[in-house]
């Protein structure tokens, strides 16, 4: 019989074993796939952090477990800056605010020669680095309030679609941590509702949280100012962002914000700095199985190294003090060593290392 | 052959037609069930309100519809008092606060002879009805703040499990509106996320919202005070309810609260009083298909009659002004007439009418 493959002279008789071998090979591939799926956290090295996360999920989702948690009570909270994406050398939202200054000054020319706007407009990074907290607050108020909610959302969406991190020349939204994205997916696959609980701006993070983390806007808890309801000339209502702080979602503000916005205590919480301490304490103070974890940035090569815990360089951006490290060790929180626990840091496979 | 049923002398031969008849009967029952399921709002009379709700759902969930809405954007908001349960002669939460006064005074005996506590302790309903808003505020502060979040939740859970409405001698939680429960279920079955957006206390409603409405605590937006994070002697953290208003979820506070807590504009919103006006305006100001509805209490026999819209008796509890009625008519909001649109009011079948 002539082969149906013109240039391939194989008889049907000899083709069968080939197909059988192919089938065996395919089953092997499927087997490998199944194996890959069996590891829900492939970017994590085997170690105490990965083990603790998997054990917590088992302890809370197995109906036979004494610490089983009903699906509706499965709440997981993630700090954002330094926990789920890069926050050095400066918080992404602060970069947004600094880059918005020219547009704000264009609308209010009287600010042109007024500090701190004058310094920001100069582009002098050294001078900008010396701005005080009070100066920074003025910049945040000028760039985050005074416009409608819809205008702000549109501005952030436009900026975040193209703004890049100076070190990697990649979009900020590409500099999320692959291991944390895997944890979020793993928790959701096990019935957990995942929340961002950030010191950053709630309205800012909500613009991209669904696309970047798979977390919808209503599951973003963040620092938030009030809004003011009003009407335009045609009588159409709109909300204006006001310079009035409603929730300072940092430190004790995190458990307060969690109670306010969610009304349930987390089962598992992730942070990376002193601003997350109270959220982790509050999480661990609940009954049953609870887990608190802190990302330690000890990987200058692949990302950054800062503490000052464990002798790492000091920083004002996402400070991880030795006191926090000691509290973690004493109370059974898990330290995630970026260097040792993470096989890879960022989602793309095209990393230079 | 001897029957396996000792006292039932039926041969296998004669049993078969019986089984066939039974099967036919069962299929008939299934058919009836399927028919019942075909009407998602069985407690609603056919009319413009029922029709508008069903049309809105079709317009937003049919992929071929030009006003199709992605599932994650399907947000439905419900005012509570007077919209999803009885709020006359007085709001349920105010009844709770009044009934808590003796316990508060027992802990703080110095309040015993101080107004307005003295009047409340007297039990004189006429005198209590004359208390000013300032007096009422003092009672709310004394009974809703100053305790831990967990203590408050436990107290409300205990009270709401037994507290009854004086007119019907039924639990307050049984005096929800069956037609509105059906709307909630219908919307959820069509991918909508249902929220309570109440002028009442967020922490109060969260205690029973899941059980009574199928709405989890994180989907309750309400008037909320701040909490304060602290530690007990053993170092265990807890949150104390503070007399500091964070969100006054009434009037313009409703769209502000919706933006703060949800971050999305509702597709459909239900209210019953002037306190809901801005929520309905905000809902209707969105693009595409949107629906705003107001329950009009025009049914003194089965529930209550109050307005003063349409010449109904005036009230301070859930006021529905003629101006609100006129705005509704002018802008295409739907008025739900309790008397004409609802076949039944309450869930139980043991209603006295």
Describe the structure.
The longest helix of chain A has 27 residues, at 12-38. Chain A is built from 14 helices and 9 strands. With 353 residues, chain A is an alpha/beta fold. Chain A has a 7-stranded mixed sheet, sandwiched between helices. A two-stranded antiparallel ribbon of chain A has the order 2-3. The first copy, chain A, has helices spanning 12-38, 48-61, 92-107, 117-122, 125-129, 133-144, 149-160, 178-189, 202-206, 209-213, 253-261, 277-284, 322-331, 338-341; strands spanning 75-78, 164-165, 170-171, 193-201, 220-231, 237-247, 268-271, 291-296, 334-337. At the A-B interface, helix 9, strand 5, strand 6, helix 11 and helix 12 of A face helix 9, strand 5, strand 6, helix 11 and helix 12 of B.
Secondary structure blueprint with pairings:
The structure is a homodimer of 353-residue chains.
Chain A: H1 12-38, H2 48-61, E1 75-78, H3 92-107, H4 117-122, H5 125-129, H6 133-144, H7 149-160, E2 164-165, E3 170-171, H8 178-189, E4 193-201, H9 202-206, H10 209-213, E5 220-231, E6 237-247, H11 253-261, E7 268-271, H12 277-284, E8 291-296, H13 322-331, E9 334-337, H14 338-341
Parallel strand pairs in A: 1-4, 1-7, 4-5, 7-8, 8-9
Antiparallel strand pairs in A: 2-3, 5-6
Produce a short descriptive summary.
Two copies of one chain form a homodimer. The first copy, chain A, has 353 residues and is an alpha/beta fold.
